[in-house]
Write a structure and sequence with these properties.
single chain, Rossmann fold, two-stranded antiparallel sheet, 6 helices, 9 strands, about 35% helix, binds zinc ion, LmbE-like_dom_sf, deacetylase activity, Bacillithiol_biosynth_BshB1
């Protein structure tokens, strides 16, 4: 299936924290959007890989995703090498997205930056026809997305572009809360972590509020881009 937007995320819940409002917005506009998670988040202190699989599927339903799959890379230890690049290229060529959204290039968790670099490298290499890949026994065509954006997750990074998500803030909150074991949930009995505190959840909403304020709306998500961004119609800018 061809997608319009493919989100590449190293941990299940990164896409929700970083860009689920933008995902929900574009699905409401009729775009096809999917997520490929790189790992099952098996090093997370709370829950387990199996529980994360269920939580990720629950979130996919809330967001109305057209596809979600997991590459089962090793959480914390995957590398940006030929094997891992090839696995990501296979997904890019499978879904042929115009736009990729991926992890921040520098963040609190070292996996995020490594995944952001891996995704950017794979997007470029996917366009080279002499790199041969196949899926289900079928040779794949080269495909290069025209735009790669990094969502801003934990560390504050000055965005290059901001997307208004005001009507979709509740969907964003609901998709994050689908990860019941990870985030603030007074009924959950495992030890509290950095991301399970009520303050962490407030900070996610506060970040969206801050980005919203900066463009004159209520809630928004910010993205960075390695290249200069162009626009055909100045009236699409706000
Ligand atoms: Zn993460």
């Amino acid at each position: 299936m061809k997608l319009d937007i493919l989100v590449l995320a190293v941990h299940p819940d990164d896409a929700e924290l970083g860009c689920s409002g933008t995902i929900a917005k574009h699905i409401a506009m009729g775009k096809k959007v999917g997520i490929v998670d790189f790992t099952r988040g098996e090093l997370g202190t709370r829950g387990s890989a199996e529980i994360r699989d269920i939580e990720a599927a629950d979130s996919a339903k809330i967001l109305g995703l057209h596809a979600r799959e997991n590459l089962k890379f090793k959480d914390g230890f995957f590398t940006n090498d030929e094997e891992h690049k090839t696995a990501v290229i296979r997904m890019i060529r499978k879904y042929q997205p115009e736009i990729i959204l991926t992890n921040a290039l520098h963040d609190r968790h070292p996996d995020h930056g490594r995944a952001g670099d891996l995704a950017n490298d794979a997007c470029f290499l996917s366009g080279l026809s002499k790199i041969s890949t196949n899926i289900d026994g079928q040779e794949q065509d080269a495909w290069r997305p025209r735009l790669v954006l990094q969502y801003i997750q934990d560390r504050y990074i000055e965005p290059d572009i901001i997307v208004d998500i005001t009507p979709y803030i509740q969907t964003k909150i609901d998709s994050i809360k689908a990860f019941k074991t990870q985030f603030f949930n007074p009924d959950h009995e495992e030890a509290e972590t950095y991301i399970s505190s009520p303050e962490f959840f407030d900070s996610v909403i506060g970040r969206a509020r801050e980005f919203g304020k900066s463009i004159g709306t209520t809630y928004a998500e910010g993205f960075t881009c390695r290249k200069l961004l162009g626009v055909d119609d100045l009236f699409n800018l706000s």
